[in-house]
Design a protein that fits this description.
Order of helices and strands: EHEHEEEHHHHHHEEHEEEEEEEHHH
Helix content: 25-40%
Radius of gyration: 18 Å
Strand content: 15-25%
Strand order of the largest sheet: 4-5-10-6-7
Distance between the termini: 52 Å
CATH superfamily of the domain at 168-264: CO dehydrogenase flavoprotein, C-terminal domain
Number of strands: 14
CATH topology of the domain at 168-264: Enolase-like, domain 1
Shape: globular
Largest sheet: 5 strands, antiparallel
CATH class of the domain at 168-264: Alpha Beta
Structural class: alpha+beta
Length: about 260
């Protein structure tokens, strides 16, 4: 690695000030940023550690919303009784991220800010129409994800919490056996009014909604209806793990599994 300045912020105000003054990078769990720095894919002159800021932590239910602090670690979310009771799909998703070390260090806010094309949390946020609160504003999920490793966040803007509307939901993914990232992952959410949102990760350069599946499941909420949808391979990722056609096929299959897990 190379020389850089390290600061541990004690408050959100201090973190925001340091980021603005130094044009630095915020450090959450470090599972993405530190690895990128080791490979010199990221070379910030200053790193601002958010780990000591108390208001970024914690999980609570607020009426019909589940509010999760940005610095909540995957393992904490997976083990949370509040999450397991209100929305077990989120606990299951968190439990399936990476390995034990990654789950004990990585954070939900860090995952969203990084927006890895194969990360799990973006699919949950987009499918559940969650809102992302930052030090400046509140962003809707549909406006947050912009592209591969790209979000609507400003350079000195920090995610503070994520509010998930409580709904019946499930996540199904086909994991890479080495990294546990999603080769394809599909999150299905069915709201009380019968509307359905489906978000897919791992299949394209960024998380995306699947209107074909949403329309089919709004008409008939069954696994068969999901599997009958023929997703276009256009724009799907192609690599040594799978062709665009394979990923397109997996999207419908995994959507069917998620629907089955939700039930009728």
């Amino acid at each position: 690695m190379y020389a850089f300045e390290y600061h541990q912020a004690a408050s959100l105000d201090e973190a925001s000030r340091l980021l603005a003054q130094t044009n630095g990078r915020p450090l959450a769990g470090g599972q993405s940023l530190v690895a990128a720095m080791k490979l010199r894919l990221a070379q910030p002159g200053t790193v601002v550690d958010l780990g000591a800021i108390p208001e970024l932590k914690g999980v609570r239910r607020d009426g019909e919303r589940l509010v999760i602090g940005a610095m909540s670690r995957h393992a904490e979310i997976a083990a949370s009784d509040v999450v397991r009771k209100a929305m077990p799909a989120l606990a299951a998703l968190a439990e399936g991220i990476g390995d034990r070390q990654v789950r004990n260090m990585g954070t939900i806010g860090g995952s969203l800010a990084n927006n890895d094309p194969a990360a799990d949390w973006p699919a949950a946020v987009l499918a559940l129409d969650a809102t992302i609160a930052t030090t400046r504003r509140t962003l809707a999920a549909d406006a947050f994800f912009k592209g591969m490793y790209e979000t609507a966040l400003g350079s000195d803007e920090i995610i503070t919490s994520i509010a998930f509307p409580i709904a019946r939901a499930a996540y199904a993914k086909f994991p890479n056996p080495a990294s546990r990232f999603a080769l394809v992952g599909v999150f299905v959410a069915r709201r009380a009014d019968g509307s359905v949102r489906v978000a897919v990760t791992g299949a394209k350069p960024s998380v995306f909604r699947a209107p074909e599946l949403e329309a089919a499941l709004a008409r008939t909420f069954t696994s068969d209806a999901a599997r009958a949808v023929r997703m276009s391979p256009t724009g799907m990722n192609a690599d040594l793990h799978g062709t665009p056609e394979y990923r397109a096929h997996l999207v419908a299959v995994l959507a069917g599994r998620a629907v089955a897990a939700i039930g009728t």
